[in-house]
Amino acid sequence: MNRHRARGFTLVELMVTLAIVAVLSLGALPLAEMTIKRAREHELRTSLRQIRSAIDDYKRASDQGRVARPADASGYPPALNALVDGVLDVKDPAKRKIYFLRRLPQDPLLATSDTGGWGLRSYESSPDQPQPGKDVFDVYSRAEGTSLNGVPYGRW
Questions:
Q1: What is the pTM of this model?
Q2: How far apart are CA 79 and CA 99, in angstroms?
Q3: Do residues 149 and 41 make contact, with C-beta atoms less than 8 angstroms apart?
Q4: Torsions phi, psi of 72, nearest 5?
Q5: E strands in the chain
Q6: What single string gives the DSSP state of each residue in the chain?
Q7: Whether pLDDT at 86 is above 70
Q8: pLDDT tens for each residue of 97-155
Q9: What is the DSSP letter of 6?
Q10: Residue 3 gets which letter from DSSP?
């Protein structure tokens, strides 16, 4: 008698394999979430650095007399859009514009809006209670929560 033995996997072997794959997947999920959060935080840090550098460049140009400003103004941009739209260079004979940003970065942790989702702080407001005003001295994220290093996003 020559019996042919069926080749393949039993139901028990398939269930054990499926259980092992499920446990490995559940272990990788928190790591993937942390990687995504770390990437968003890196993008937030980069965006804040770009905007703050552009604000400083605007202030420097204003102090050098290249940007017209009223006597009672602080020299900081009146709005974030001024960094993108550009301002006239009053020292340039051709009256070309000075541009400080190509585009306004969005806050990667928030939905977009006209100011990119950023909170605005004027020169006259305190660092502890930032308030918008007639100029833009600094920007901060309005996202709720804390970063991986334990610092709230609004304090970055």
A1: 0.78
A2: 14
A3: no
A4: -90, 5
A5: 87-88, 97-98, 118-121, 138-141
A6: --PPPPPS--HHHHHHHHHHHHHHHHHHHHHHHHHHHHHHHHHHHHHHHHHHHHHHHHHHHHHTT-S---TT--SS-SSTHHHHH-EE-TT-TT-PEE-S-SSPPP-TTS---TTTTEEEE-TTS-SSS----SS--EEEE---SB-TTS-BGGG-
A7: yes
A8: 999 999 999 888 886 555 568 999 999 988 888 889 899 999 999 888 888 888 998 88
A9: P
A10: P
Say how many C-beta atoms besides its own lie within 10 A of residue 24's C-beta: 9
pLDDT tens, position by position, 40-70: 999 999 999 999 999 999 999 999 999 998 8
- Decide if pLDDT at 8 tops 60: yes
